[in-house]
Amino acid sequence: MTDNRLNGVIRAWEQGKPAFAAFSKVDKLTAQEMTDAPYDGIVFEMEHNPYDVGGLGDALQYMLNRKMIAESGSVAPSVTPLARIPANGAEMNQFQAKQVLDRGVYGVITPHVSTVEQAWNAVASCRYAKPKGAALYEPKGIRGDGPATAARYWGLSQPDYYAKADVWPLAPHGELLVGMMCESPEAIDNLDDILSDVPGIGLVLIGEGDLSQALGYPRQYEHPEVLDAMRRIVETCHKHKVAVGNPHTNAKNVERLLGEGYKFLMSAPSRSYGVVGQGRELAGY
């Protein structure tokens, strides 16, 4: 599937490369600028910014570049759009994942996922229902059926969209990435069970800010206890061969993060182009 892969983040991983990304505001101008940025993906930030689905739909349209599509001969986006939704894992939310997917994003990141049940819900919310007994039935999909806008945005027929709009790596052909944020001691304690029992989690993004708060060292990202907690997350992800991400990548820590096996590196847009170039050079491509 690598040659036909639409999701650039998954494509990078399948090629043995780390993926580089940044958070993005949900507005047209930023989205248009991000399309020309050197990222594999961007994450529209809707947890701490307003949850604006209409604005997200507009932003996604501004990411379309007809010239790039014509030159590449592929409907795969030059930069893959994902969304971080507002609802915490404990809220067991479903409609926000459904709505951002229906606009056309290629993945959903859920903050504050701490238990197996919460992770299961995050994956199920991104999957369409299948007949019982069908292959890859679990987690049972609960995403409502409304594919028209997403299929049009992806440049696919609705049947082709249905075929590709499943969760990777549970479905190897799937183009949707389900990410969970691990940002509390409880989440760390439960992470081994989560990754053992919930097929379909493709990314664990460490929430350093909230994790450092919970440990009593707010935003002290280099504090030994914070670093040790992050080390535990990384080791658990490596054990289960699940990509681990860092949202505060910069020129000072990118080499260490790559050396520790981080596969999803996010940096602030204002200074990220240099970090992406540095990271790709360190990664050997």
Keywords:
285 residues, alpha/beta, TIM Barrel, 13 helices, globular
Give a written overview of the molecule.
This protein has 285 residues and is an alpha/beta fold. The chain has one domain (2-177, 195-220, 235-272): Phosphoenolpyruvate-binding domains (TIM Barrel), CATH 3.20.20. The protein is 42% helix and 14% strand. It is built from 13 helices and nine strands. It has helices at 8-14, 28-35, 53-62, 66-72, 95-103, 116-124, 148-154, 158-164, 185-197, 208-215, 224-239, 254-259, 272-283, and strands spanning 19-24, 41-45, 80-84, 107-110, 167-168, 176-182, 203-206, 243-246, 264-266. An eight-stranded parallel barrel has the order 1-2-3-4-6-7-8-9, surrounded by seven helices. Helix 9 links the parallel strand 6 (176-182) and strand 7 (203-206). Helix 2 (28-35) runs parallel beside helix 3, helix 7 (148-154) crosses helix 8 and helix 10 (208-215) packs across helix 11. It is globular. Residues 30-264 form the HpcH/HpaI aldolase/citrate lyase domain. It comes from Sphingobium yanoikuyae. This is 2,4-dihydroxyhept-2-ene-1,7-dioic acid aldolase.
Q: Which helices and strands occur, and which strands form pairs?
A:
Blueprint: H1 8-14, E1 19-24, H2 28-35, E2 41-45, H3 53-62, H4 66-72, E3 80-84, H5 95-103, E4 107-110, H6 116-124, H7 148-154, H8 158-164, E5 167-168, E6 176-182, H9 185-197, E7 203-206, H10 208-215, H11 224-239, E8 243-246, H12 254-259, E9 264-266, H13 272-283
Helix pairs in contact: 2-3, 6-9, 7-8, 9-11, 10-11
InterPro entries: Aldolase/citrate-lyase_domain (IPR005000), HpcH-HpaI_aldolase (IPR050251), Pyrv/PenolPyrv_kinase-like_dom (IPR015813), Pyrv_kinase-like_dom_sf (IPR040442)
Organism: Sphingobium yanoikuyae (Sphingomonas yanoikuyae)
Family: Belongs to the HpcH/HpaI aldolase family.
